[in-house]
Write a structure and sequence with these properties.
Blueprint lengths: L6 E5 L3 H13 L5 E5 L11 E4 L2 E4 L5 E2 L9 H8 L6 E2 L6 E5 L2 E4 L4 E2 L2 E2 L32 H9 L1 H16 L8 H4 L1 H7 L5 H11 L9 E4 L4 H11 L2 E3 L4 E7 L2 E6 L6 E5 L1 E4 L3 H8 L4 H8 L2 E13 L8 E3 L8 E6 H4 L9 E8 L12 H16 L8 E13 L4 H15 L3 E3 L2 H4 L3 H19 L5
Parallel strand pairs: 1-2, 1-16, 2-12, 7-18, 16-22
Antiparallel strand pairs: 3-4, 5-11, 6-11, 7-8, 9-10, 13-14, 14-15, 17-20, 17-21, 18-19, 19-20
Helix pairs in contact: 1-8, 1-15, 2-15, 3-4, 6-7, 9-10, 10-13
């Protein structure tokens, strides 16, 4: 018999940490003591549902992918199902988005994979691919373990316009980064796998799409009626974990076969013992916690950089908006806005009979943090002015506005990221098997990826603890 219950500490109360806590509750012994330490006063990390002009709106992540890379149910959908929320999943009522090209809106062409075309003719209205560059050279595009930047591969095969007008704005909308800086393996794993077999990029895109077929008309994205904070609250409750808000973990020390966590302010620290620890915070806080006993992994983790962004939401009385879900903006257009969502158009369940529209814009690109160093009022005014410019109509004066700043929010995955993460995890597993790391900084952005990352880390901890308590 076990002498006492396992004690597992989860550091970080975002969706990764909460998914990990729930997985522990489902799969660890029933009496396992799970504690989640969140340094802020709110759970959910980048999932935050708020309200503007009496309407619900997301101030962080907006939606999740419905499918996983193999074509099955995504981890976010599975989590919603586990929590009894599957019936509250809703889908966009308007799916067509646009690109800003030469100051005007053009529909985003279909058939691309994060902007990389599988049919060059289909993108001709937006970008002109380099003629005959994507030739079969008699060997796969990538070697077995090779990683390259997305921009380098696409530019070599399709030319500059495809990168600037399609791929860069797509990646910018997701990562706030540049195609030339982002790892193909991390940001487009399906395409990277196909590129190790296929001899042309068109062939690789088509192979990646064929490997995860989607039924005609099947929705790509979903969200929850009531907001994504509903998912956060339900996961926290179902985990049965002790939730410690405003509880920053400042130090982590191996002690015997377990761990000591130093929690709280410097002048009044609290020492907590645990048998296992899951770190689900961003890379730099993770690196600080690792530095005292795992210097090399800490240095690798600490080298990951992040982009800062702001989400600016305007409540507009009966504006003349096109029938689009929103638009993406190439960096070459010279706008502060990099993406915009016509929130109440895209999500029909939020539409109001009075015609009030919520329009959200994302601003901030990697390396351009100074653009965010202005007041909220200035950001609201700039977004309103740029929206008017892009749409070509005079938008009404907002009845309300909100600026949500996310400093250091989006990881920037340089080529080789996946290999570096694998090396970090292997080193920690060999030296400290009851410690696991998880989250967007390691495995990628998006709710399904973060959920899966947390669940996998929890499984590692259960295995490390051996199925019986101390």
């Amino acid at each position: 018999m076990r002498a006492r219950p396992w004690r597992v500490a989860v550091v970080g109360g975002g969706i990764t940490g909460l998914a990990a806590a729930l997985r522990l509750r489902d799969r660890a012994p029933a009496d396992t003591e799970i504690t989640v330490y969140e340094q802020s006063g709110a759970l959910g990390g980048k999932l935050r549902t708020g309200e503007l002009a009496g309407r619900p709106v997301e101030f962080g992540a907006e939606s999740f992918l419905m499918r996983d890379p193999a074509g099955g149910e995504s981890a976010a959908v599975a989590l919603a199902r586990r929590l009894g929320l599957a019936g509250r999943i809703v889908h966009p009522t308007v799916g067509q988005a646009a690109l800003v090209v030469d100051g005007g809106l053009r529909p985003i062409p279909g058939g691309t994979l994060v902007g990389v075309p599988g049919d060059l003719a289909a993108v001709a209205a937006v970008a002109e691919p380099t003629a005959d560059a994507d030739r079969d050279g008699g060997r796969p595009l990538l070697d077995a373990n090779q990683d390259v930047s997305v921009g380098a591969l696409v530019r070599a095969r399709f030319g500059e316009q495809v990168v600037q007008r399609l791929v860069d704005p797509m990646l910018g909308g997701v990562y706030a980064g540049r195609a030339d800086d982002l790892s193909l393996v991390t940001t487009m794993p399906a395409l990277a796998r196909a590129a190790r077999v296929e001899h042309t990029l068109v062939g690789a895109v088509r192979a990646a799409q064929a490997a995860a077929p989607r039924a005609p008309g099947a929705p790509v994205f979903g969200t929850l009626d009531g907001g994504l904070s509903t998912l956060v609250e339900a996961a926290a409750t179902a985990s049965g974990a002790t939730i410690r808000r405003n509880a920053a973990v400042r130090e982590l020390t191996p002690v015997g076969g377990g761990w000591r966590l130093t929690v709280g302010p410097t002048r009044d620290p609290e020492s907590v013992e645990a048998d296992a620890v899951l770190l689900t915070v961003p890379a730099r806080p993770t690196a600080r916690l690792l530095a005292g006993f795992a210097a090399s992994p800490a240095a690798t983790v600490g080298g990951l950089d992040y982009a800062s962004v702001a989400l600016v939401t305007l409540a507009l009385p009966a504006p003349a908006l096109p029938r689009l879900s929103g638009f993406l903006v190439p960096a070459t257009e010279g706008l502060l806005i990099k993406a915009s969502t016509f929130f109440t158009t895209k999500w029909g369940h939020l539409a109001a009979p009075d015609g009030l529209a919520l329009v959200r814009a994302s601003v901030g690109r990697y390396g351009e943090e100074t653009s965010l160093q202005v007041t909220d009022d200035d950001l609201l005014a700039t977004v309103h002015r740029e929206l008017t410019r892009v749409l070509g109509v005079a938008l009404p004066t907002p009845v309300a506005g909100h600026v949500q700043r996310w400093g250091g929010a989006l990881p920037q995955y340089a080529p080789g990221h996946t290999g570096r993460v694998a090396a970090v995890r292997a080193a920690l597993r060999a030296s400290h098997p009851t410690l696991a790391v998880a989250g967007a900084g390691f495995d990628g952005v998006g709710i399904p990826v973060c959920v899966r990352s947390g669940e996998s880390a929890a499984d590692e901890i259960i295995e490390a603890l051996g199925g019986s308590g101390p």
